[in-house]
Write a structure and sequence with these properties.
By secondary structure, the chain is mostly helical. The chain is built from eleven helices and two strands, in the order H-H-H-E-E-H-H-H-H-H-H-H-H. It starts with 9 loop residues before the first helix and ends with a helix.
């Protein structure tokens, strides 16, 4: 079994090491995994790390735990069974649906960040917000900076599963963000509203107020949906249409590569 490298998320690294052993058949179906004590000794991690890694492997359908007996390898599911099938096309409806996904993720990210952040996390969040302000002031669309801002909040939440989900969805979130920010750039008051909403999230996180952070994150996404829903039809006939066509082209290229 490969020895894991120490890092920010030990449970994720341990789970990846075990997953690699299972998928390569070094650990075979039905075989019992090393005990918690053995894994603690081999990798120099805590019992909590081992249990979180086991939980991740159970979620992936790679192991099962039996009361009093330990953890055993299951037959790995086919690769396609674990793939999310998302085909956003840049339309108003598709963008709104991605915003709905973001609403659930961003609200919980903000709440967890309020509970778990440290000084370094907060500095990164504020730096990301300053970078977004600078990009907008310089005439940029702020898309990558906007995504980075929300990623910094997710990082502060300290949940590797949440980070994995956001990493997978990032290709779709970034395209949806490109459309929403293009719409918001059509009016200064919309851009100001977005900044105020970001600031409310940051202030709630800094105060350690999980409830306020969750509410601010939810409201930000609710307002984003409203801004798209109420966008001037001319936007969708010009910038929105161009962005939608670019997104469709990107997806077509992706399908060809697959």
């Amino acid at each position: 079994m490969p020895r894991i490298q120490l890092g920010a998320s030990l449970s994720e690294k341990l789970a990846q090491s075990l997953e690699k052993s299972i998928r390569s058949k070094k650990l075979r179906t039905g075989e019992k995994l090393p005990t918690e004590n053995a894994l603690v000794e081999i990798h120099g991690v805590s019992r909590t790390v081992v249990r979180e890694a086991f939980s991740r492997l159970k979620t992936l359908g790679l192991i099962e735990t039996r009361q009093g007996s330990g953890a055993f390898v299951k037959e790995p599911p086919p690769p396609e069974a674990s793939k999310l099938k998302l085909i956003p096309d840049g339309s108003v409806d598709a963008v709104l649906k991605v915003v709905e996904v973001r609403r659930a993720l961003e609200a919980e990210s903000a709440a967890l960040a309020a509970e778990r952040h440290n000084t370094k996390d907060l500095q990164k969040i504020k730096q990301a917000m300053r970078a977004l302000d600078k990009a907008v002031a310089g005439g940029g669309d702020g898309v990558s900076e906007d995504v980075a801002f929300h990623a910094a909040i997710a990082q502060a939440a300290g949940n590797p599963f949440l980070l994995d989900t956001l990493a997978y969805l990032n290709q779709f979130l970034e395209n949806a963000t490109r459309v929403t920010r293009a719409n918001e750039a059509t009016r200064k008051d919309l851009g100001d509203d977005v900044r105020d909403e970001h600031l409310a999230i940051v202030q709630a996180i800094e105060a350690g107020d999980a409830q306020a952070a969750r509410q601010a994150g939810t409201q930000h996404m609710v307002n984003a949906a409203k801004r798209i829903g109420h966008a001037d039809p001319a936007f969708w006939r010009s910038q929105g249409l161009a962005l939608a066509n670019r997104l469709r082209a990107d997806l077509d290229v992706k399908k060809l590569k697959e």
